[in-house]
Each structure stands twice: as structure tokens, then as C-alpha cells.
Design a protein that fits this description.
Strand content: 35-45%
Structural class: mainly beta
Order of helices and strands: HEEEEEEEEEEEEEEEEEE
Number of domains: 2
CATH architecture of the largest domain: Sandwich
Mean pLDDT: 82
Number of helices: 1
CATH topology of the largest domain: Immunoglobulin-like
Shape: globular
Low-confidence stretches: 1-29, 233-240, 242-246
């Protein structure tokens, strides 16, 4: 249930937090700035096949290759500046349901790029992964990435307190400061608190760490679930993505 709560909060955070600057103009020029950003990819489209990520026309390769539904890649280094991003089917690279002509990433910043909704309506959600936890508490963000699920509230298991209210797809909460420990939450429909489609096991958080809890899957398809990821910069991978096509 706690994980459900986290999901609702995450949705609010997504709507409130800054996103990467996106420019759909095909004439926009690509440019690199000094420094690097950290980018990870979440496959949250329940009926989409495994996918590979392309940066400026080049397949990034592992760990941004062969991602299946429910998979979250580690962070990879990307040169700061503007880039074109495509997400293509691993089995057929000519099929690229997500094609963003220009996304700008800033030096020293971390981002999550999520493929969401069903394949016929697939779309990219971009989140900035911020937050500096203290040594005494954890920071937790909740993100609603289940496109066919209604707005939700994140509640304590007994329903006596709402952690997040009326979180709708594709929203995200701010990072919430929590004491280290175990949290047992549930996610319920805002319009009917007796309908609680996500009731995960208790979530453990540690002081000095930053987390995102993603609600993914399909209500109609019966695949709703919660995915917990660590956002703390120290956990980032050291892989480096190519900066341009050959």
C-alpha cells in the first residue's frame, strides 16, 4: 500500500517539477555544451516490445538496449547540450514510436526519460531527478505513469492519512522528506476510496538516499505495479553515451 502512496505522490511531482526543454522544430540545431548530464530510461508502456535508445542517430547500446516493460536502465553519461532521442523496437529498428527531435540536458543534472501509455498512444515523459537528502532523512518522490488509471490518493494502510491527493497521469509529486524506515501505504481512486488498485509491500527507505516510486502498467490489463528506483547521484552508472552520429 505504501508503494501505492508513493505512486500517487510521484504523479504530482511530475506535474510540478521542471522538465527537459523540448523543441519539436525539425530545423532546431543540435549543440553540445561543456560537461555531462546523467540520463536513465524507464520502459513503462505495458504492451510495447523491447526497445533500444538512439542518441543523435546512434544506438547507445548497453545498458540502453533491449529494455522490456518494467525495466529501468542505470544512468548513463550524456554530453550536456541538445540531442535528438529516438526509442526504437529492438527487433525492428525502423519502428521508432518515440522520436523527439531535440531535448536539452544540463551539465550536472540527472534525468529520467519514461516511455508511457499503450503502444498506439505511446509518449515520452521527461523528469528532472533532483533532491539533496540530509543524513537524517530520505527524500521520496511519487510518479503516476499508468495512463488508464484514474487520479489517485496515496494513503496510509488504515486510510487515516493522505500522503498525496488527486494525483493524475502523468503527474509527479515533489520530493517528500521521510524518516528512514518502513512505510506501508496504498493507492486508491480519488473518487472512490474503496477502490485501491495498488497495494504493494511496505517500502524501505534509508537516510541520505533519494528515491522515485513509479506507478506503471495498465488498470484494464491488470498489470498495475510499483517500481522503486534510487535517484541518488552516487548510484549513477559510469557508462557514456555517444554524442553524435558517425
Amino acid at each position: 500500500m505504501r508503494r501505492t502512496v508513493i505512486l500517487s505522490a510521484a504523479l504530482l511531482a511530475l506535474s510540478a517539477s521542471p522538465t527537459l526543454a523540448q523543441d519539436a522544430s525539425p530545423d532546431a540545431s543540435m549543440g553540445a555544451a561543456d560537461g555531462t548530464a546523467m540520463v536513465r530510461v524507464l520502459h513503462a508502456s505495458p504492451d510495447a516490445p523491447a526497445v533500444d535508445v538512439y542518441l543523435d542517430g546512434v544506438a547507445v547500446g548497453a545498458p540502453l538496449a533491449g529494455l522490456s516493460f518494467g525495466s529501468m536502465s542505470p544512468y548513463v553519461e550524456v554530453p550536456a547540450g541538445s540531442h535528438a532521442i529516438k526509442v526504437c523496437a529492438t527487433a525492428d529498428p525502423s519502428v521508432c514510436p518515440i522520436d523527439v527531435p531535440e531535448v536539452s540536458v544540463e551539465d550536472g543534472q540527472q534525468y529520467t526519460v519514461a516511455a508511457t501509455n499503450v503502444l498506439d498512444s505511446i509518449e515520452a515523459q521527461v523528469l528532472v531527478d533532483t533532491g539533496s537528502p540530509s543524513m537524517d532523512q530520505a527524500l521520496v518522490r511519487f510518479v503516476h505513469l499508468a495512463a488508464d488509471a484514474p487520479p489517485v490518493d496515496v494513503l496510509t494502510q488504515d486510510g487515516s492519512a493522505a500522503i498525496v491527493s488527486n494525483l493524475a497521469y502523468p503527474g509527479a509529486s515533489d520530493y517528500l522528506a521521510l524518516d528512514a524506515g518502513s512505510y506501508d501505504l496504498k493507492v486508491c481512486a480519488t473518487a472512490d476510496m474503496t477502490v485501491c488498485p495498488i497495494d504493494p509491500p511496505a517500502v524501505e527507505v534509508a537516510a541520505g538516499q533519494t528515491y522515485s516510486v513509479f506507478a506503471i502498467g495498465s488498470l484494464e490489463g491488470g498489470s498495475l505495479s510499483a517500481l522503486v528506483a534510487v535517484d541518488t547521484a552516487a548510484m549513477a552508472a559510469s557508462s557514456t553515451a555517444p554524442s553524435s552520429a558517425p
